[in-house]
């Protein structure tokens, strides 16, 4: 009632109606702490995140929407912390955690905000594992807000790491100071523990198999002996094994025989294990290592 300025207005039919609408939460007059309407779009046109959801922002760390009688309903704009800017919400935009909403003000004409058109962005792929990235992203894949690089706890965790001096650790922005092949990352706090989480940035695939070029001969241009083969898995993540798939073992390609190859062949007739002797590396199409 006080937030609706009920004690400051003269008692007229119009003001009584306005105060009643304000008290019931249909409009705001003040900071809108008791706003109970169904606006779910921020002033810039971003759609609000559901109060009970944890992605892209972990709301449960600040507010519990499951409490009995909670005003945090659906994804409607609310002002649970009595912000002087009025009702607000967490947004579905990973890069913008919170934003104020445009809600009806009691006694004033109201034009609701509309959802901003989705901007079609061409995906930018980062080279060099994103070491050169200097953007403003400060939210990770898991929806966690990055911690400031200047925090004492973060500095302590980074103390013994071999960071590249040229990478500037500014604010709480995603960076890759250690040339991590998974790309830019940052420190985040999860359940009271500080850990590393990676950021939602696309990396360029590593060069796969380069085309093998023949030698130049007199009167002829350089020729390509074999076309480039495109691998399904990125060697950056899965290693180079796929590029060797289907090739004969190295010892066959080089015409080298294993010193115990004959013994191995003879053993197939009676037993499947060769007396526990060590086999030479690359002496078979595949080998099993037991630790």
UniProtKB/TrEMBL annotation:
Q: Where is the signal peptide?
A: none
Q: Which domain of life is it from?
A: Eukaryota
GO terms of molecular function: serine-type endopeptidase activity; signaling receptor binding
Gene Ontology CC terms, in alphabetical order: extracellular space
Keywords, comma-separated and alphabetical? Disulfide bond, Kringle
Domain annotation Kringle: ranges:
26-106, 130-204
What is an annotated GO biological process for this record, any one? blood coagulation
Pfam families the UniProt entry points to: Kringle, Thrombin_light
- Stored PANTHER family: PLASMINOGEN, PLASMINOGEN-RELATED
Q: What is this protein called?
A: Coagulin factor II
Query: Taxonomy-wise, where does this protein's organism fall, top ranks first?
Result: Eukaryota, Metazoa, Chordata, Craniata, Vertebrata
């Amino acid at each position: 009632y006080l937030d609706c300025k009920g004690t400051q207005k003269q008692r007229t039919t119009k003001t009584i109606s306005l105060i009643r609408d304000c008290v019931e939460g249909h409009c705001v007059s003040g900071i809108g702490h008791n706003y109970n309407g169904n606006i779910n779009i921020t002033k810039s046109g971003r759609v609000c995140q559901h109060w009970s959801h944890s992605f892209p922002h972990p709301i449960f760390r600040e507010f519990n929407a499951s409490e009995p009688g909670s005003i945090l309903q659906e994804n409607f704009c609310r002002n649970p912390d009595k912000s002087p800017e009025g009702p607000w919400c967490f947004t579905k935009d990973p890069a913008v955690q919170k934003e104020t909403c445009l809600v009806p003000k009691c006694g004033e004409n109201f034009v609701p905000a509309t959802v901003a058109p989705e901007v079609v962005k061409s995906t930018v792929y980062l080279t060099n594992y994103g070491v050169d990235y200097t953007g403003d992203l400060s939210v990770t894949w898991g929806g966690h807000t990055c911690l400031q690089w200047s925090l004492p706890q973060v500095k302590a965790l980074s103390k013994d790491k071999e960071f590249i001096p040229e990478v500037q650790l500014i604010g709480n922005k995603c960076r890759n100071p250690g040339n991590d092949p998974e790309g830019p990352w940052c420190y985040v706090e999860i359940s009271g523990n500080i850990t590393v989480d990676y950021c939602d940035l696309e990396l360029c695939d590593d060069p796969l198999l380069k085309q093998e070029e023949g030698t130049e001969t007199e009167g002829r241009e350089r020729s390509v002996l074999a076309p480039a083969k495109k691998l399904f898995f990125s060697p950056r993540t899965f290693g180079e094994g796929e590029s060797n798939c289907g090739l004969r073992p190295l010892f066959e390609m080089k015409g080298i025989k294993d010193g115990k190859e004959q013994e191995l062949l003879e053993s197939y007739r009676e037993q499947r294990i060769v007396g526990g002797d060590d086999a030479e590396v690359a002496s078979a199409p595949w080998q099993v290592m037991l630790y």
